[in-house]
Amino acid sequence: MNRRNIIKRLMAAAFLAGSFSLPAFAAVEVAGVKFDDTINVSGKELKLNGAGLRTKVIFKVYAAGLYLTEKKTSVPDVLATQGPRRVSITMLREVSSEEFGKAFLEGLNNNTDKNERSKIAPQTMKFGEVFAQIQTLKKGDQMLLDWTPGEGTQCSLNGKKIGELMPDMAFYNAVLRIWLGDHPVDSSLKPALLGEK
């Protein structure tokens, strides 16, 4: 065996050895934003169900990831999931809190009926106050919307809790339907969050 073949075999062996040491599931990347495959919320491990891009016209607005205790591919299954949940949003451009809040309410209204909206109205108003505390969402800002059973919905921005806990699970499910409802804010983001892409 000549020297060149020996070097080729050694390199192939080194490559194979290196590839076995890689983690089984690498983080998912969306528009430069990395979403860890697993995270911890309230002492429970959550898995990345799916992640995708929210665009408006031609602009990239944010990257979003949905975390659940186990992967689900249908909206009813996601909404019925027990245990903690998280929606992670990383801004890809600057948006005023007024604009973000308006889009949030529009998405909520488009995916809930009048009866449901009246039931969650107090929590929706409290959530609206969250946006009043923030003037602008800047590129790179990370907003987390966590659901913890027995506690409620907690919003945080760049690691700092903002707003009050909202105890009703119906509110969190209404928020999820902004992206997963019959009239999602972005038709390509819905299948991405459901892990179809």
Automatic annotation (TrEMBL):
* Signal sequence, start to end: 1-26
Q: Which UniProt keywords apply?
A: Isomerase, Signal
What's one Pfam family the UniProt record gives for this protein? Chalcone_3
Note the superkingdom of the native organism: Bacteria
Molecular function (GO) terms for this protein are: isomerase activity
> Which InterPro entries does this UniProt record tie to the protein?
Chalcone_isomerase
Occurrences of domain Chalcone isomerase (ranges): 27-195
Does the keyword Isomerase feature in the UniProt annotation?
Answer: yes
Does the UniProt entry include the keyword Signal? yes
PANTHER family found in the cross-reference section? FATTY-ACID-BINDING PROTEIN 3, CHLOROPLASTIC
Q: What is this protein called?
A: Chalcone isomerase family protein
